[in-house]
C-alpha cells in the first residue's frame, strides 16, 4: 500500500496464563495509510488493545514485523523504543490517566520534560495544545475541577503536545456521556482532517466508529474485514458556507459562542496556526503541525 505509515507482517502475540498459552494475535497482516482515521472493532478478547500496545511500543510481539513511521519496532532496544515512542506516538486512554495533584497545564507539559525543548518552548507547546482542545481558560484547574469531557480533552492535549505522527486511542469515549463523547469524537476528527494526524481508535461503540474513515475488524486475533465507512460523520460540512468557523473548537458544555468563536470571552483563532517552536526527535521536520 503506497504511503503506508503502519505495516504489520505475520505478527503473533501470545500470553501464558495458568500454564496455558493464549494466542491473542495470530499471524496478523495489516497496513494503514498515513493521515487515515481508523476505528478498530471486534468482540472482547479479539486483540484490539494488544494491537494498540504493540503499535505504540508498549509491548513486544513474539514474532513478525511491526513498522510504524518508518521504524521496525521489533528491532529496537528498550531505550530506543522509549525514545521513538516519545517522538512519534500520542496515547489517549479511556480513564484519562491524569495526575490528580497537577493542573491541566502541568499534566500536558509533563511528557515534554523528556524532550530537548527549553522550559519556555515546553510552555508554548502545552499552552497551544490546551488552546487547540478549547481549554485555554481551564489550564490551571485540577482534574477534580473539570467535567469528564474536559478531562479527556486535557488527556488529548497531553497526547498531541509532542506533535506525534500517530494518535492511539483506546475507548476514548467509554467513560463519557453521549454529549461529551460527541465533542471528543469531533475533536479527534479535527485533528485528523485539519492537522493530518493518523488516528487508530479502539471502540465498541458503532456511534464512535461512524467518525472514522475506515473500520478494521478483528476476530480471535485475526484480521476480519476492512471497510470504508459510508456513514462517516461529515464534521466539516457546516464549514462549507463559513470557513471562518474553522477557527472554533469544541468548547465547554453549555458555553455561549459569538460570531468570533468566543468561549467564556476568549477568542479561538486557531485556523492557519502552526505548532510553536521546533520539532524534536531524529529525522523530524523543523515546522510541526503543518
Give your account of this protein's structure.
The chain has 290 residues and is α/β, with parallel strands linked by helices. It has one domain (4-232): Rossmann fold, CATH 3.40.50.300. The protein is 25% helix and 25% strand. It has helices at 48-55, 78-88, 104-109, 119-132, 148-160, 178-193, 206-209; strands at 4-17, 20-33, 37-41, 63-68, 71-72, 89-93, 166-170, 198-202, 214-219, 222-228, 262-263, 266-267. Strands 6-7-8-3-9-10 form a six-stranded mixed β-sheet. β11 (262-263) and β12 (266-267) form a beta hairpin. The longest helix is centred in the middle third of the chain and has 16 residues, at 178-193. The chain starts with a strand and ends in a 23-residue tail after the last strand.
CATH architecture: 3-Layer(aba) Sandwich
| Low-confidence segments | 235-273, 278-290
CATH topology: Rossmann fold
Mean pLDDT: 82
What is the rounded distance between the termini? Answer: 24 Å
Note the run of SSEs as H and E.
Answer: EEEHEEHEHHHEHEHEEEE
Task: Record the strand order, biggest sheet.
Answer: 6-7-8-3-9-10
Strand portion, in percent?
Answer: 25-35%
Largest sheet composition:
6 strands, mixed
Instruction: Name the overall outline.
Output: globular
Number of helices: 7
Could you say which structural class the secondary elements and strand pairing correspond to? Answer: alpha/beta
| Total E-strand runs | 12
**CATH class identity:** Alpha Beta
